[in-house]
């Protein structure tokens, strides 16, 4: 397997994305973005790892950013690498870059390193956390990453490519909480839907319905709204609006047609204000401000400026219509006047859904450098080789991949 065919694996809570670094940028990568139903496991799993062999439900080995079931994770990785990626062949495995959830423990990093070398026989390995990778995906080394996931929401400052873990925050809610909230909102109208249908309605509504404050004219003074600047082509914008209008109407399995505009706005508000979901937590904008302030206590004014000017909204929830503008406005409302916030600019040439796939994309960018043997991060200095692992064991990951 050629080095330029390095595999990128992004460990997420809802799905695990895998694909080739050499295939990016393209809409085809990552080519695998799913969790395998229990009945499709290619390796034996323990009774605790699966309910029944015929269950169609995916088993999630990563919950709220922590690996909770190593047997299932191993099985899913085996399925992804050997069954779904043609170039990953038994006895001829190659380089692998793993994107870990932010705040992954030292012990779990070592276990992952042991797994990839001893079970998947990688020739070289590099690991990075999702926040650093997400910024790399949009060409940045520093910023505040707001990763809206399936079952958690991370607010992580990054300076010069290093995660400032002590300043970050993990909020224990995400997309699945919004799905449950939608079920509750609909039940109050006498509409009962399954979890599967609620998930579909949620995605349709949140991608189509803007909530108040997301319009460009509603931004607070000093807020630099850059997300849609390069995408204001009138014809395309009109077509997008037409598609969004159609997504506000949802047909239930029993044929009932409902308009979810009201629910879409409510879900957007709940995403920014977790108290609406029953959590005793600060608003998302407050968590972002706190993360930036704590980091700048150690880094000074320059750190404050670079963090304020590079706010990245990513993860599955980044597709919520208008969330970047609305969140930027809320952060700007309480920001220091000398450090007005701005969003990370995503170039127009980048693939669709770049924000949702930012971590994987960043991994692809990093892999081309890490495994190339040239540039600022040469393979001999940063990637863990098989010889490194044999000599030092799993703990080598902390020396090679900070």
Mean pLDDT over all positions: 83
Q: Assembly state here?
A: single chain
Q: Rough shape?
A: globular
What structural category do the secondary elements indicate?
alpha+beta
CATH topology of the largest domain: Nucleotidyltransferase, domain 5
Number of strands: 15
CATH level 1 name of the largest domain: Alpha Beta
User: Considering DSSP H and I runs of 4 or more, what fraction of the residues is helical?
Assistant: 25-40%
Instruction: Give the radius of gyration.
Output: 21 Å
Poorly predicted segments: 38-55, 216-231, 374-379
Largest sheet: 6 strands, mixed
Q: Give the count of helical stretches.
A: 12
Instruction: Give the total of domains.
Output: 2
Question: Can you offer a commentary on this structure?
Answer:
This protein is of the alpha+beta class. The chain folds into two domains: 3-131 and 358-400, ATPase, nucleotide binding domain (Nucleotidyltransferase, domain 5, 2-Layer Sandwich); 143-333, ATPase, nucleotide binding domain (Nucleotidyltransferase, domain 5), CATH 3.30.420. Helix content is 37%, strand content 15%. It is built from twelve helices and 15 strands. It has a six-stranded mixed β-sheet with strand order 3-2-1-6-7-15, with helices on both faces. A hairpin with a 2-residue loop joins β4 (62-63) and β5 (66-67). The radius of gyration is 21 Å and the shape is globular. The model is unreliable at 38-55, 216-231 and 374-379 (pLDDT under 50).
């Amino acid at each position: 397997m050629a080095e330029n065919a390095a595999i990128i694996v992004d460990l997420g809570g809802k799905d695990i994305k895998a694909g080739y670094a050499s295939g990016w940028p393209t809409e085809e990568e990552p080519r695998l973005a799913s969790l395998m139903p229990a009945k499709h496991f290619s390796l034996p799993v323990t009774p605790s790892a699966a309910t029944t062999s015929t269950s169609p439900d995916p088993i999630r080995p990563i919950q709220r950013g922590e690996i909770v079931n190593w047997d299932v994770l191993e099985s899913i990785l085996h399925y992804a690498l050997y069954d779904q990626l043609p170039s990953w062949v038994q006895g001829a495995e190659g380089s692998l870059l793993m994107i870990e959830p932010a705040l992954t423990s030292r012990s779990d990093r070592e276990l992952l390193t042991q797994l990839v070398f001893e079970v998947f026989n990688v020739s070289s390995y590099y690991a990075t956390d999702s926040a650093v990778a997400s910024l790399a995906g949009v060409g940045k080394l520093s910023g505040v990453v707001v990763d809206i996931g399936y079952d958690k929401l991370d607010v992580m400052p990054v300076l010069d490519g290093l995660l400032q873990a002590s300043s970050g925050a993990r909020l224990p809610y995400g997309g699945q909480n919004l799905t449950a909230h939608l079920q509750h909102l609909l039940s109050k109208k006498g509409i009962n839907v399954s979890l599967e249908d609620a998930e579909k309605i949620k995605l349709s509504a949140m991608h189509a319905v803007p909530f108040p404050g997301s319009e460009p004219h509603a931004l607070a003074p000093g807020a630099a709204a850059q997300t849609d600047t390069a995408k204001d082509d009138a014809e395309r914008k009109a077509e997008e609006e037409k598609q969004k209008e159609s997504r506000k109407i949802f047909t239930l399995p029993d044929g009932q047609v409902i308009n979810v505009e009201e629910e879409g706005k409510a879900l957007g508000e709940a995403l920014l204000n977790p108290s609406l979901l029953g959590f005793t937590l600060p608003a998302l904008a407050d968590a972002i401000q706190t993360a930036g302030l704590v980091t700048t206590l150690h880094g000074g004014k320059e750190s404050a400026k670079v963090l304020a000017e590079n706010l990245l909204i990513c993860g599955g929830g980044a597709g919520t219509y208008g969330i970047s503008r609305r969140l930027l406005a809320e952060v700007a409302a309480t920001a220091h006047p000398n450090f007005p916030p701005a969003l990370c600019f995503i170039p127009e040439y980048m693939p669709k859904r770049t924000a949702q796939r930012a971590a994987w994309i960043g991994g692809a960018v990093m892999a081309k450098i890490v495994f190339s043997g040239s540039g600022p991060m040469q393979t001999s200095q940063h990637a863990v080789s098989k010889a490194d692992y044999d000599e030092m064991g799993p703990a080598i990951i902390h020396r090679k991949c900070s």
